[in-house]
Amino acid sequence: MKEISLPMVYRGREYVDGALPKGDPSDDYTEDLSIVERNCSKIISAAIIIEDRMISAVSKIIFTKDNQYQNFFVNEIMGTSDSTYVFKRRVFTRLIENFQLMETDRIKKLKAELNKVMSWRNAFAHGKLVHEHNGGFILEYYSGGSKDLLLDNRFFDKAEETIRYCVRECDSLILSRLIKR
């Protein structure tokens, strides 16, 4: 399979008046840039997987068996571009709450973690990657105001942990609904 190579534009950030970079300098800029790019793509892809899992869970909660109505609901309502991530997350979490499919604390944590995934997906999809002079990588994005996200090992560890948690919770709910059929 051919790997495509597209032009990428990255901005540098210089600091003046004694301001210091937010990130640590890179030992190998080219390698770190490659890792950051791959991680960004993986986070966007994982957010799409989580969306699919939420749709699947919703359909398993609402429909007691697979049939044409479930397929229509999944493909023509939940799976369309008209249904945003926010809408899917709201339907998913409201069903869990209304039918008491999880404990309150677990629902609260899942909502918070799904919000993080949504925020990261939007930031990576629409933000700008910046390399700090004598520093690390920053993602500049807008979400209710201009924001910066330091892309370091600590962030990527947190993102990986959060995404794995969301996938596990969705899969657990799907499995529990399948067992009840």
Brief digest:
The chain has helices at residues 29-62, 68-78, 85-98, 104-126, 153-180, and strands spanning 11-13, 128-132, 137-142, 146-151. With 181 residues, it is of the alpha+beta class.
Can you describe this structure?
By secondary structure, this protein is of the alpha+beta class. It has one domain. Helices cover 61% and strands 11% of the residues. It has a 4-stranded mixed beta sheet with strand order 1-2-3-4. Helix 1 crosses helix 3, helix 1 packs across helix 4 and helix 4 crosses helix 5. It is elongated, with a radius of gyration of 20 Å.
Secondary structure: helix percent: 55-70%
In whole angstroms, how far apart are the ends? 41 Å
Overall geometry comes to: elongated
Give the SSE string: EHHHHEEEH
Count of DSSP-assigned helices: 5
- The count of β-strands is 4
**Would you tell me the overall average pLDDT?**
87
Portion in strands: 5-15%
Rounded to the nearest angstrom, the radius of gyration is: 20 Å
Q: Strand order across the biggest sheet?
A: 1-2-3-4
- Which spans have pLDDT < 50 for at least 5 consecutive residues? none
Tell me the count of domains: 1
Q: What does the largest sheet look like?
A: 4 strands, mixed
Going by helix content, strand content and strand pairing, the class is alpha+beta
